[in-house]
Structure formats: C-alpha cells, structure tokens
Amino acid sequence: MNCNQIIIPLSIHNQMVEHGISTLPYEACGLLAGNQTNVQSIWQFKNECKSDRRFFVSKYNVERTLNRINEEKQDVLAIYHSHPFTAPIPSTLDMINHPDTDIKMIIISFKRGSPTVRWYRIRDTNYEECLFRIESSR
Ligand SMILES: [Zn+2]
C-alpha cells in the first residue's frame, strides 16, 4: 500500500489550480496524464451540468479525451476536481464514482479562500493521502 511520490511540473499544477479558480462557484474537473509518476499533461473537462456539488461529463467527451491521451502514449495518473466550498476531503460519492485504485484523486479546495491541493489514493471507500512534489524547472 505505498503511494509512489508523484512529480508534477509547476506549470501544470498552476493550470489545474487556475481551472478551479476560473470555474468558481462551480466545480472544475479534469485529468492529469503522464508516465508512471511523472505528470506530463493536463486535460480540462467542461462541467456539463453547472453545479457547485456535482460534476458531469458525457461519456463521449471522456472517451475522446482518453483516446487523445492514448495517442500521446501517456496514461491517466489522476482525476482532479474542485470543492468550491468544502474541505479537501473525498466524499463518499467521490469515492464510489472513482474508477480505479491506480488512478489518484486530486481535490482542490477553496474553502479557506486560497486553494488547498491534496492527492489521494482511493481504495473502495477508504482514502489515503499521497505525497506529491511540484517541480519548477523541466
Ligand atoms: Zn468531491
């Protein structure tokens, strides 16, 4: 049960946080892809139902994005979403909807004004926080 430490470039980390800010007061959601523990790309989803509690992306748009990630020869490493008003803790619904233990869950919380970013490993309805490292130069 180890959480391999993820390395995320600062530029991608910032794009993810900015995506969260730009969709406030609604939730933002997207994918991070790359190889093994190195994040190499970010894929932002549009929330197709505007809500601060729920996120919906059509199957078509998810599959189209997954195909493009595949074409880049990358794997999905994490799914991120924002919590505009609540703490950066996975909800039961978040965990039930999470597709895969190998894919990390990232939550960007704006509860305290400035964004808090947490990475989790989800197993059934349990979560474990993961370390991540932001790398400023690549
Ligand atoms: Zn959530």
From TrEMBL:
TM regions (residue ranges): none
Q: What keywords appear on the UniProt entry?
A: Hydrolase, Metal-binding, Metalloprotease, Protease, Zinc
JAB1/MPN/MOV34 metalloenzyme domain location:
5-132
Q: Which GO terms describe its biological process?
A: proteolysis
The source's domain of life comes to: Bacteria
Question: Which is one Pfam family of this protein?
Answer: Prok-JAB
The GO molecular function terms of this record are:
metalloexopeptidase activity; zinc ion binding
- Protein's recorded name: Mov34/MPN/PAD-1 family protein
- Organism equals Virgibacillus salarius
Question: Species lineage, top-down?
Answer: Bacteria, Bacillati, Bacillota, Bacilli, Bacillales
